[in-house]
Amino acid sequence: MEASSLRRIPDNLRPTSRPHPSLGARPPSPPDPVPVDNHHRTRGSARAVSGATPMAAVRARDQGWLMSVTRPTMPPTRPPTRPPTTTRLRRRARAGLGAATLGCLLIGGYGAALAASGFRLLPADVAANGFGLALRLHVVTSSVALLLVPWQLWPALRRRPRLHRWLGRGYVLAAVAGGVSGFAAALFTANGAIAAAGFAVLGVLWTTTTLAAYAAARRRDLRTHRRWAVRSFALAFAAVTLRLLIPLAMSMDFTFAATYPLVAWLCWIPNLALAEWHLRRTARRASE
Question: Phi and psi of 27, rounded to 5°?
Answer without folding.
Answer: -65, 155
